[in-house]
Design a protein that fits this description.
9 helices; alpha/beta; 11-stranded mixed beta sheet; 358 residues; two-stranded antiparallel sheet; 15 strands
Amino acid sequence: MTSTVDLSSLYAIPWTADNNANGWIEPTTHCQLKCPGCYRGLAAPGHVPEHRLLSELIEQVDFLEKKRNVQTISIAGGEPLMYPQLDELISAIKDRGIQVVILTNGILLDEARLRHLKKLKLDGVLVHLDKFQGRTESQNESQVNGLRAEHCSVFRKVGGVQLGFIMPISFQSLSDLNILAPFFKENADVIKMILFTVYREGLSCPASSYEGDCQDIDQIIDGVKATFNLSYCAYIPKLYSDNIGWLCATTIYHRKKTWKHLSPAMFAYLQQTHFEKRGKYPFAPFERRSSIALEQGVYSQTVIIVNPPVKTQKGWNLCKGCPDAMVHDGRLVPSCLLEVIKKGEDITVYQEGKKNGV
């Protein structure tokens, strides 16, 4: 099947390894869950969790600021809310004028914790919730929506911190979109971003397979588009092909009704003017919302599909620029392939030249 999306009509996001909206750090590999397909291998037998030194993490932040020109740092893990020096880490990042987003399973995120994080000027939170985590009585996204609704209520009450949700997606789970789409639309006043990551079993697709086709990426793209009534506007290409790394769509709602879709030209304008004024590209889903727009019931919601790399004859087919790159042993590497790198593979965000990144 070939997708109905014409990439030539979309804006190709120009982020590079040296000039990117986002940087990635992982302060801990402690986590309460063992999610299937975890990139960090936390569900693997013999995993020994650890906390990183705060001084090492701050060095990584400085590396990402200097070498990558980031506007935002994403704090992931493991479960970052379990890191004992999280407050100091957030403060150090904010002191450098960089936005901070936390990726969390949400177990420790109650109203009191969110109010505390708001005082630290946290910009956004992405909560990973899906039916495979064993948090509900059955593997049912309707029940998981109940947990998502609890987070929505807390974020509405506290205000001032952007909320998003992240979850895996595969061809087999496309039917869940009929449950998810109405919920996300109904809560568009508080849910700023939905991020679907195409499921990869251990990122172990054979090199001979069609790029991106461990699960049929075209059917996923079209399924999300149809169910969410989207109009895709921008994408990040792959390193060795014209296929997608990231695919983005932003819908503007007015009082819970679809008003318009962000066009490729408007997405390009927002990226380029931000860079011209501030010297950095914006990580758009977590930009602050206009208070006037909110008062008038106007909300934007961005849906992103992330298509992880597969190994080809040329090497790992990474997203160009790799928005989720992190520092490992003094090099800039794709966070999704860190466990592969630890086993000895020579992979950097500068895949073609194998440059050090320092």
